[in-house]
Amino acid sequence: MIGVRRPSRNGPRSHPIFARVYPRIGHAAERRGVAEHRRSLLDALAGRVIEVGAGNGLNFPHYPSSVTEVIAVEPEPRLHELARRAAASAPVPVTVADGAAEALPFEDGEFDAAVASLVLCSVHDQPGALAEIARVLRPGGELRYYEHVLSHRPLAARVQRALDATFYPPLAGGCHSARATGDAIRAVGFQIDREERIAFKPSPMLPTIPHILGCAIRS
Ligand SMILES: C[S@@+](CC[C@H](N)C(=O)[O-])C[C@H]1O[C@@H](n2cnc3c(N)ncnc32)[C@H](O)[C@@H]1O
């Protein structure tokens, strides 16, 4: 069922402080609207699914019964363990696997669909991760994505770039606020089926941050 588990191409991915803080922030953000976005993200998804960077498994409750199996890759040890626990009560079969998006330990075309939520901001090599996701999807397979992205407003974008160049990524488990992830998905050859841009405030402490919620098809 799970292919050979190769070690991560980019070394260990332990972020002990982020891994303790994220589940708390994540649960609060669920109540502020993220849970609704997750439901839209996974709506009517079907077949065998790979979820990349599953964190503590906040997507798991939202998988519809048309999904036959989820393989959830999570490299951070503490979040991996939390995801394993969350998998036990998921409404569909979920197996949590080790690995990294840049070197997925699976065969070409194994999956009907892939899910990336709030993770393409954090991967070390975004084009490499997207190419790997495309590789493990069958032709015609879907990439469902939900990501915060670079603002279209020049001042906000400048602040995002300054954050990314300084303290933000080490503090936030490798997250970058200024990635144009929709463009990156197009650049690796996915065809966009739909993409919605959402002005969203995930926490009262944070400014409004643009998010994209979409579905792209592997040609
Ligand atoms: C902000 S959390 C999001 C977790 C989850 N996807 C969600 O929607 O709540 C980012 C996640 O990406 C994972 N991650 C970071 N780099 C990764 C990589 N190269 N491959 C796979 N996952 C990665 C982190 O360990 C973390 O669990």
What report would you give on this structure?
The chain has 219 residues and is α/β, with parallel strands linked by helices. It has a single domain (16-217), classed as Rossmann fold, CATH 3.40.50.150. It has 6 helices and 7 strands. The chain has helices at residues 16-42, 77-88, 126-136, 154-165, 168-171, 181-187; strands at residues 47-52, 67-73, 94-97, 111-117, 137-148, 191-200, 209-217. A 7-stranded mixed sheet has the order 3-2-1-4-5-7-6, with helices on both faces. The model is unreliable at 1-12 (pLDDT under 50). The structure holds S-adenosylmethionine (SAM).
Distance between the termini: 24 Å
Query: What portion of residues is helical?
Result: 25-40%
Q: Helix- and strand-based class?
A: alpha/beta
Strand order of the largest sheet: 3-2-1-4-5-7-6
Number of domains: 1
What coarse outline follows from CA principal-axis ratios?
globular
Looking at the overall shape, the CATH architecture is: 3-Layer(aba) Sandwich
Overall mean pLDDT: 93
Largest sheet: 7 strands, mixed
Order of helices and strands: HEEHEEHEHHHEE
CATH topology term = Rossmann fold
Number of helical regions: 6
Task: Tell me the β content.
Answer: 25-35%
Which small-molecule ligands are present, each listed once? S-adenosylmethionine
Regarding CATH, which class?
Alpha Beta
What is the strand tally? 7
What is the radius of gyration computed over CA atoms, rounded to a whole number of angstroms? 16 Å
What are the SSEs and their pairings?
Blueprint: H1 16-42, E1 47-52, E2 67-73, H2 77-88, E3 94-97, E4 111-117, H3 126-136, E5 137-148, H4 154-165, H5 168-171, H6 181-187, E6 191-200, E7 209-217
Parallel strand pairs: 1-2, 1-4, 2-3, 4-5
Antiparallel strand pairs: 5-7, 6-7
The structure holds S-adenosylmethionine.
Residues 13, 22, 26, 52-55, 58-59, 73-76, 79, 100-102, 117-119, 122-124, 173-174 line the site of S-adenosylmethionine.
